[in-house]
Amino acid sequence: MNILVTAGNTQAPIDRVRVVTNIFTGKTGANIARTAWARGHRVTILTSHPETLTDLPDPASDSDRRVTVVPYQTFDDLAGLIQKEIKTGGYDVAFHSAAVSDYLSAGVYAPEPGTFFNARTKYWERRGNAPAMAEHRGGKISSREPELWFRMVRAPKLIDRFRNPWGFQGLLVKFKLEVGLSDTELVDIAEASRTTSGADLMVANTLEGSAHSAFIGPLDGRYDRVPRRELADRLVLTVEHMHRARVQHE
Fold first, then answer.
1. 16, 77, 83, 237: which could join 72 in a potential S-S bond, CB 3.0 to 4.6 Å?
2. Multiple choice CATH, 2-101+156-248, 3.40.50.620, 3.40.50.10300, 3.40.50.11210, 3.40.640.10
3. How many Å from the N-terminal Cα to the C-terminal Cα in the chain?
4. What backbone phi and psi angles, to 5 degrees, belong to 197?
C-alpha cells in the first residue's frame, strides 16, 4: 500500500518569534510510519518532529525509496502539504494523527490608556469613555506593554477536508483525544466525529489514558480497547485487511 501519515503538533504564529502550539510530539504517527514501512509499504510522513524517525533509512540510501519524511512547522504548512500529497500522491491509506491547532491567531491587542478589564463583572470598562483596544503588529510584538490580549479564532478542521474538497478516495483513519470522559462517552463522541469526517476508522483516547491504551473502531460494529504498545501494529494490520476487502470488491 501507499500510505500517508501526518504526525506532530502544529504552530499558530503570533508574530515572527512567538507561537501557540500543543504538547504532542508525533510519536504515535512515527510508530505507525515505522510499522507500515517495516511491513513493506511505501510511506510518506508529514511531521513536525522528524527527530522521532531517525531510525528509518535515509531516503537517499533507501534503494526502494519506500519512505519519505517531510517536515513542517505551522498549521498552514501542514494544510498545504496534505492538499498537495492528496492531489498528487495516489495514496491508498491516510493516517491523520497530527495534533492540529484548533484555533489560530487573529490579532494581539493592548488596552488603550484608561481601559481595563473588570475581572469581577467580566466587562471592559473605561472611565469617561468607551473602552478601546489598540492592535499590535510587527515582526516581534513589544514586551513593554503591561497587558496584552490575544484573539484566537477557530481553525478549519483539516480532517474534514480530506474527502471534500481535497477528494481523497482511500481509507481514512482519524484520531481523537478528549479529556475527562468515561469510556462510553468517549466512544459515542468518537463515532459521531468519525461519521462527520467520512473516516473509515477512528482511534480515540483520553489524555488521562493515552499512555496506556486507545479505542479503535468501528470493528464489526464495536470499538476495541488496544494497549498503547500494540496500537501501531493493530492499526496497520487493520487497514491492510480493509484495503484487501476493498480491492476484492472493486
1. 77
2. 3.40.50.10300
3. 16
4. -90, -5
Q: Which helix (H) or strand (E) holds 243?
A: helix 231-249
Instruction: Beginning with the edge strand found earlier in the chain, give each strand of the sheet holding 133-136 in spatial order.
Output: 133-136, 103-111, 149-154
C-alpha cell at 201: 476508522
Q: What is the pTM of this model?
A: 0.91
Q: What is the DSSP letter of 158?
A: G
Sign of CA dihedral 52, 214, 158, 15: negative
Residue 6 near residue 71, CB atoms below 8 Å: no
Q: 10 Å Cβ neighbour count for 207?
A: 12
- Identity of the amino acid at 168: F
List the chain domain ranges. Answer: 2-101+156-248, 104-153
Digit-coded pLDDT (tens) for 185-214: 999 999 999 999 999 999 999 999 888 999
Here the cell at position 229 is 504498545
User: 57 pLDDT exceeds 80?
Assistant: no
Helix (H, G, I), strand (E, B) or coil at 55: coil
